[in-house]
Structures are given as structure tokens and as C-alpha cells.
Amino acid sequence: MSSDLSAIVLAGGMSSRMGQDKALIPIQGVPLLQLICQMAESCADTVYVVTPWEERYQHLLTPKSKFIREVTVGESLPHGPLVGFAQGLAQVQTEWVLLLACDLPKLEVKVLQAWAAELKYVEEDAIAALVCHSKGWEPLCGFYRHRCLPSLMEYINEGGRSFQGWLKQHHVFVLSLPDSEMLFNCNTPQDLGLLQ
Ligand SMILES: Nc1nc2c(ncn2[C@@H]2O[C@H](COP(=O)(O)OP(=O)(O)OP(=O)(O)O)[C@@H](O)[C@H]2O)c(=O)[nH]1
Ligand SMILES: [Mg+2]
Fold it and tell me: Does the annotation list 10 as a binding residue?
């Protein structure tokens, strides 16, 4: 375990495709958000759950996890994952942050730990270490250097909301993915059906 690594779990999405809050869906009896926090804890000393809805998830917190309350505007609609991440990153002190979506039920702790062990070999000029797939980077299961925050804020302040658009401006270290099933993204009732 590295004291230079913390984790941010994003739990502020609308789950509109699922039709119910994905974070609360039990996977083999464990609510998805709790499952992701448990996995994050196996790699990082502190896990930060970024959400505007602390009360909803209070009962799911694991021993090493805490909330970062996301600030929303207007009718409390979230700003999307890039802004949620920036708000979380601004509160974190470690050199590296493992960023995780809360809808990845097939994550594998061993792979996350092997990636974390590789961070010491990542080139100094890389701002992140991510898996690359045919459509671009996988931004919501990978590692970011804390010092990417000024560039992220600049991109957001200019109106940018896309991880791909932001990452395009930077050098990113490529992580290898032993089995793509690990990144199975549970967005719809059909996805959920595949799990059960
Ligand atoms: N904190 C925070 N997390 C977000 C926000 N938008 C999405 N997320 C999280 O980002 C991850 C990926 O979200 P998606 O699957 O793309 O979208 P979603 O909003 O959860 O669901 P849809 O409404 O179906 O698109 C999930 O962990 C979401 O909870 C946001 O505005 N704030
Ligand atoms: Mg998703």
C-alpha cells in the first residue's frame, strides 16, 4: 500500500439509463458503491466518494472512505464526471489518485494493485496512467497525478467537459488490461441482467 496514492470514487451520476441509482444496486448482496470503495481501499489509504448526495450513501461508507461533497448549481443537477473529479482532486494531497466510477462491478483488486505498483515507473511528464481502447482512453478506471489539477481547471474554465478532449493535450502512460471484462460498465437494466 502506498501513502502516495489515494482514491476518488465518483457517485454523482443521474443513472438515467438504469432508471434507478446504480450506486445502490446490490451485487451479490453488496451495494455497488460499497463494493467499489472496498476495492479502492485495497490500493489506497484514503478513499474519497465525490457526490452531492452524502445522506443517500452514508450507510455505505467503508472504514477508510469519506465524502467530498460536490457543489452543484441551479436545480442541483450534476456537472458531469470531469467536474466531479476536479472537485475531488482539489481536496486530495497525495501525488497519485486512483479514479473509479461506481458502476464497474467486475473490477479486480489484483489488477488495480499491479497497476499501482507500476506508478513508480511512469514518466515524469505523464499526467495520468490509463487503459487505452479503440475509442480512446478509459478515464474512469485509472490513475492521475495530482499536479494535473491546474491544467484540468483551465480546461473546465474554458468550457471543456470531456475527459478525452482534456487528455488529448497531455502525455498519458498506457496501462495494460489483462482482461477487458474487468471494465464491464453497468449502465442499463440489460447490463445488470448480464451480471445475474
Ligand atoms: N460526482 C459525480 N459523479 C458523476 C457525475 N456524472 C457522472 N458521475 C459518475 O461517473 C460515473 C460514470 O457515469 P455514467 O455511467 O457515464 O453516467 P451516469 O450519470 O451515472 O448515468 P446516465 O444518466 O445513465 O448517463 C459514475 O460513477 C457516475 O456516478 C457528476 O456530475 N458528479
Ligand atoms: Mg457508466
Answer: yes
Any idea what the CATH number is for the domain that residue 50 is in?
A: 3.90.550.10
C-alpha 137 to ligand 2 mean position (Å):
14
Express each pLDDT in 137-156 by its tens digit: 999 999 999 999 999 999 99
Residue 176 in domain: yes
User: What is the domain count for the chain?
Assistant: 1
Residue 1 lies in a domain: no
Angle at 191 between CA 11 and CA 172, to 5 degrees: 55
ipTM over 0.90: yes
Q: Whose CA is nearest to atom 17 of ligand 1?
A: 13
Domain that holds residue 36: 6-194
Which of these, 77, 89, 107, 96, lies nearest to 177 by C-alpha position?
A: 107
Which residue do the cell numbers 450506486 mark?
23
pLDDT of residue 196: 72
Ligand 1: residues whose CB is within 6 Å?
Answer: 10-18, 22, 50-51, 70, 78-81, 84, 101-103, 140, 187
